[in-house]
Design brief:
Blueprint (H helix, E strand, L loop, with lengths): L1 E9 L2 H12 L3 E10 L4 E10 L14
Antiparallel strand pairs: 1-3, 2-3
């Protein structure tokens, strides 16, 4: 099955750690990062994809794969 996640959060080291964790768990970057400003801080986003065994089902916790 093909999996897709979109990680978001303040553009800080914690966000970078989340992206690094996903990459080290077999996820791959999908496209470039996005940035926006919420009036107080910069918010970053990064799409990641992964090919995994099994069949997709609604409610699947993607963060555990």
């Amino acid at each position: 099955m093909k999996l897709y996640r979109y990680l978001t959060g303040p553009d800080d080291s914690a966000f970078c750690q989340r992206v690094c964790e996903a990459l080290n768990n077999g996820w791959e970057l999908y496209g470039g990062p996005t940035l926006t400003f919420d009036g107080t801080r910069v918010i970053a986003g990064q799409a990641v994809v992964k090919e995994a065994a099994g069949e997709f089902r609604p409610g699947l916790d993607l963060s555990t794969l």
